[in-house]
Amino acid sequence: MSGDVPGVDTNAFGGRRPVRTGLVGYGYWGKKLLASLQASDDFVPQRLHYPSLLQMAEADRPQLLGVTLTDTLEALLADPELDAVVLATPIDCHGEGVRAALTSGKHVLVAKPLCLDPSEAHDLARLAEGRNLQLQTEYTWAFSPSLREAQRLVNDGLIGRVTQVHVRLHQLGRFLEHDVYPLLVSHALSIVSMFLDPTQVVWTQRAAVGPDEATTTVVLSGVAADGATVVIDASLDDPERDRSVLLVGEEGSVRFGPLGEGPTLVALRYSRQPTGTLESSSRVAREVTYDESDNIGQALAAFARVLRGEEPSNIQQSVGITEVMARLCSLAEAPRVRAAD
Hints:
alpha/beta, Rossmann fold, Dihydrodipicolinate Reductase, domain 2, 2 domains, nine-stranded mixed sheet, six-stranded parallel sheet, 9 helices
């Protein structure tokens, strides 16, 4: 399905102009987003709000390639030329920034998570719908070409009914501002939501607490409404970076591993003997290697498709992820152990 979103004359593939965009935030992730916006054929970044840059001597500022600095968020949002705003602000500021951008009539792409409060998430979704605006959360791994291929294979029935979903996200980041839930669990839930609804999973967890009382490692186990099991292993305590997903179905499996050598996605089909027992061997049904180095670019391309009306936004999944994170954080019965300092 295709069609134009009111108020946006995107370039699509028909010679129309790119989406004129303002960026809010120029920290670690904001720098990456600006570079990807500038490399995109779908967007033209025109304004940037990041007060720290204005405090620098002009000679010391980074080259912004025609992007105009604005001294206030209000000035950026008041620009009638802008179609959309990309928010790369601290997580605690997401809700406020999204609300301000939507109220000013701008479509919004916000870095994950949408926000931390489920009530606010629902309010933002209603605000976007009421103003006929698009609101998308940039859950980077949900736009991975390998995982989107995995989703297609599962939807096509290659591995039969999914019975297990395993997601492992490890990195060193225990001294960051936020704990493992918004930093990694939200990513893991966005991956899970590609294959089943995480809001319909009954979760249990075991968490490790770092020296500042923040949860730095958590193992989540859950059972979905259809009986499928879900395991999320997320850690900010591991110096060895790891990203992996395993989908197990009644007729096969799909494994995603973007960091090692070899294929980024391997799908297997199992054969069964007449007795119904599983044979020791399996057949490789699909084996591909995708470039996983530019998933921000993939996320921007998906946002452009949303603006063109070619696919729906992920707002409902984003609201659901915020709901699940809040539920997990409030599980009083979850055992917690102290990680070594």
